[in-house]
């Protein structure tokens, strides 16, 4: 397990030291950050997902992932609702922050190092983008509509603007 994380930690330390010492210049942190976020990681993610078969949708690992995501997300929603008395939209964000995993940026390299392939991460990304994200966005839209008294919904506004 240590062999999987040491390269990631080493690269993080090298990046931190390079940023703190200014060895790459004043704007390097912003430029490299945008390059990694907009070019390098999407390319690596696409390359990995294209090469990995989506298998084991009913496997024990995926069931554990789904169960843990639901449980931790529910705890986040519950704490936001009952402990902090937050609105529906803030509860959705709390649940997402608690249960959503960084499967793309960190999950792929770790899965490849630990498991030897990224097929599990491909299934996790599929579940997150096809089920969790629409559920969260739908809840946020519902919360916005409730906040506007139900009259300012996104679909209604879109139809009115088209006239």
Quick description:
The protein has helices spanning 2-21, 28-51, 60-83, 88-99, 103-115, 119-147, 154-162.
Topology as a string of helices (H) and strands (E): HHHHHHH
Mean pLDDT, to the nearest integer, reads 81
Low-confidence stretches: 156-160
Radius of gyration: 20 Å
Per the principal axes of the C-alpha atoms, what is the gross shape? globular
Descriptive account of the structure:
By secondary structure, this protein is an all-alpha fold. 80% of the residues lie in helices and 0% in strands. It contains 7 helices and no strands. It is globular and about 55 Å long. 13% of the residues are buried.
Key structural traits:
163 residues; 80% helix; mainly alpha; globular; 7 helices
Topology overview:
Layout: H1 2-21, H2 28-51, H3 60-83, H4 88-99, H5 103-115, H6 119-147, H7 154-162
Helix pairs in contact: 1-5, 3-4, 4-6, 5-6
